[in-house]
Each structure stands twice: as structure tokens, then as C-alpha cells.
Amino acid sequence: MKEFLRVAYFYHLVYRRMKNLIVASTSTVHGQDYLEYLTNELTIFFDEVDEVLFIPYARPGGISHDDYTKHASAFFKKINKKLIGIHTFDQPADALRDAKAVFTGGGNTFVLVNQLYQNNLMQALREAILNGLPYLGTSAGSNICGISMQTSNDMPILYPPSFKTLGVIPFNINPHYLDPIKGSTHMGETRAIRITEFHAFNTVPVLGLREGSWLRVQGDTIELKGEHSARAFEQGKAAYEIDSSKPLDLR
């Protein structure tokens, strides 16, 4: 019976072409290997595919596309999947069109967004996701799932053609969200203050995703997963907590 339901759900995704995403705050939680905390979730998520197209454009720490792909591949080998870097194709749009699933890794969101636009992939990736392509994003790769990249934590080391991103969820993400530390002598702005600054000029809601948390998006249903609640920010309202007890409705 379980096998029947699993197969039925797979074809339900295919024929209804519903969104199918995991939007994770981070790739690595303290004390664990790369993506280890998501092993069970990703084993199920990628069950029907044998290859995953990797978008390494965010280049954490300035790492090369090849080295980043090699690093990420180590995890995917553990779940018996082949990871292929999109940068190895002469026509990345064709690679995306033929992809069975996509993973966009973390790093610098400005670098990632700039490269997606330079390669004419932003709209193509959006359309693929809306047509049901399984998508995993971590950190910067999650940041781009929102309406814009304007709630990134990253340094603007490049100027992308636009801050507009995929818009496959109806709010912005602030990955790696950190709560203010009581008694801290740090005089810089907290994440909450930064998001308040964003809302002085923008109406888009923002979800602060804490480390080890992720969103499971299936069609129009968005569920918070992991051990932590998330912090929601809306213009003109006090920030509030969202837990995993019911589907998330932030728009």
C-alpha cells in the first residue's frame, strides 16, 4: 500500500505540474557534514531521479565551480545520485530544460543572481519549477526562491542586472536567521533591524529561517520543517513566530 501511494503521489506531481521544493536555511549545521541533517528528507525527495543538476554559481568563499561541484557530489554519492554541474554545459539553458531535478547551493547571492541573469536562466528556472521540476535550495539557493534577493545577508560584490528573483514562494527569505543575543556588546544591526530597514521601503513579507530549518513546498502548500520555529516579519506589524503545527501562510 505504501509503495502504491508513493507512486501515485509521484504521478500526481508530474501530471498536475505542481511546485515541488525544499528551501533550506543552510547546507551544513554545526557538528555535521554537508547536507547530512537533510539526508532522510533528500533521500525521499530525489527518490525518482538518478541525476541532479547542480548550480554552483554562488561560489562560497570564492571556490571554483569545479571544486564546489566536487564538494557537493560527495553527499549525493551517499544517496546514490549523480550530481552534474551546470557550468560544464556549453548551453546551460538546454541542460536546465533536460534536468530531472536541480540543486542550487549557497554562497554569495549577488554572484549567484548575476550569473543566472548572465546565462538567461532566471526565468527559465522559474518556469521549470512552476512546471514541477524538483528544486533544492540552500542558503543563497533558497534566497532566490523569494520575490527578491533584497533580504540576503551577503556582501554586494557584484551588481546583478536585477534584484528580482524566482518568486516561487510569495515572500522573501532571510537564511541563517539569528536572534538578538541578550547582553551582547555588539553595536551593529541585528537581523531583525536589517529586515525592519527593508520594510521601510518594501511591503514583501520576510521569513527568517533559523539554522537547521527548511520549507517543504508542494503546490501552494508551504510547511516549515526542522526543530526550530521561524521568525515572520510583515510591514507595519510586530514580528512573530511561526511553528510547524500548520501550513505556513505568509503573503
Could you please describe the fold and organization of this structure?
With 251 residues, this protein is α/β, with parallel strands linked by helices. It has a single domain, classed as 3-Layer(aba) Sandwich (Rossmann fold), CATH 3.40.50. The protein is built from eight helices and eleven strands. It has helices at 2-16, 39-45, 65-78, 92-98, 109-118, 122-130, 140-143, 191-199; strands at 20-24, 51-55, 82-85, 102-104, 135-138, 172-174, 206-208, 214-218, 221-225, 230-233, 240-242. Strands 3-2-4-5-1-8-9 form a seven-stranded mixed beta sheet. Strands 6-7-10-11 form a four-stranded mixed beta sheet, with helices on one face. The longest helix is centred in the first third of the chain and has 15 residues, at 2-16. It is globular, with a radius of gyration of 18 Å. The N and C termini lie far apart (37 Å). The relative contact order is 0.15.
**Based on helices, strands and strand pairing, what is the structural class?**
alpha/beta
Share of β-strand residues: 15-25%
CATH architecture: 3-Layer(aba) Sandwich
Rg computed from alpha carbons, rounded to a whole number of angstroms: 18 Å
Total of domains: 1
* Overall helicity: 25-40%
What is the rounded distance between the termini? Answer: 37 Å
Largest sheet: 7 strands, mixed
Record field, number of beta strands: 11
Strand order of the largest sheet: 3-2-4-5-1-8-9
Number of helices: 8
What CATH calls the topology is Rossmann fold
- Broad CATH class: Alpha Beta
> What do the pLDDT scores average to?
92
Q: State the order of secondary-structure elements, H for helix, E for strand.
A: HEHEHEHEHHEHEHEEEEE
The CATH H-level superfamily is: Class I glutamine amidotransferase (GATase) domain
**Low-confidence stretches at least 5 residues in length (pLDDT < 50)?**
1-5, 7-16
Outline type: globular
Oligomer: single chain
